[in-house]
Amino acid sequence: MGSERRRHGRVTAKDASVACTSAEFAKPGSDSYNLAVRLLDTSASGACIVTKGRLREGIKVLVGVIFPKQGARVMSRATVRWSTTVESKGRTAHVAGLQFERTVAELSPSKPTPTESEKLRSKEPQRRHRRFTPEKVDIVCLPRGILTKLGVKTNSAKGLRNLSLGGAQIVSSEKLSPGDPVDLTLQFRYPATTVKAEGIVRWCRRDTLSLEPRWNVGVVFKQMDPTSDGRLRTVEAVFVDEKPAR
Question: Are 201 and 156 a contacting pair, CB within 8 Å?
Fold first, then answer.
């Protein structure tokens, strides 16, 4: 299975209804006919959904999505590209990534043009994905350089400020340059899972409020295997879409 990420922009629609069925799992009219629980996000080429059980990779399914606000309905045949199960504190979540047989333009609506105040709200480059801050996460950032090639691996990360499906903002003990490739490993304690990604430093700024030499670094994900991609979106669903009560 390839490790490419989606080429199309993702769109989240919390009010959307989703149905997913497969001849391999259920018969029409049965209680388990609809395998989908809810929709996490969509793009013109696929969708990410929470399912009642873990789906087998490679099976063919039929997906239907209804957008109440837009009054739009979309139906497409798809293939389960990846699936994962996360268990934590008695909670179990099954998540699957679906790839449509054909590109569905209706699932990639154009985003509204940002206002001038929104453009100036932050000095750092704007991300296309929602940011969130996971609880209790350990991060390892390994810049690729001469020392790394020689087998000397030093973790430059001191902490994680926030995260999104497209990248991360980390606190680094060393100055990194835009364009530097890095390897990231994120180990989440809740939900208990690990995500690995290859990234590129987009910007780096000295933290002038810290007495120790520290830099705030923006990293864009460039390569991530399907398993880590699914795990990351599961973490996002926990802390953004449906944050559980503590």
Answer: no
Q: What is the tens place of the pLDDT at every residue in 176-230?
A: 999 999 999 999 988 899 999 999 999 999 988 877 889 999 999 999 999 999 9
pLDDT at 56 over 60: yes
Q: If we measure between CA atoms, which residue out of 57, 109, 104 comes closest to residue 77? A: 104
Q: What's the rounded Cα separation, in Å, for the pair 130 and 59?
A: 30
Please tell me the distance from the alpha carbon of residue 67 to that of residue 85, in angstroms, as a whole number: 27
- Considering the entire predicted model, what is its pTM? 0.51
Q: Provide the number of structural domains found in the chain.
A: 2
CA atoms of 206 and 201, how far apart (whole Å): 14
Are residues 131 and 102 both part of a single domain? no
Check residue 116 and report its DSSP letter.
H
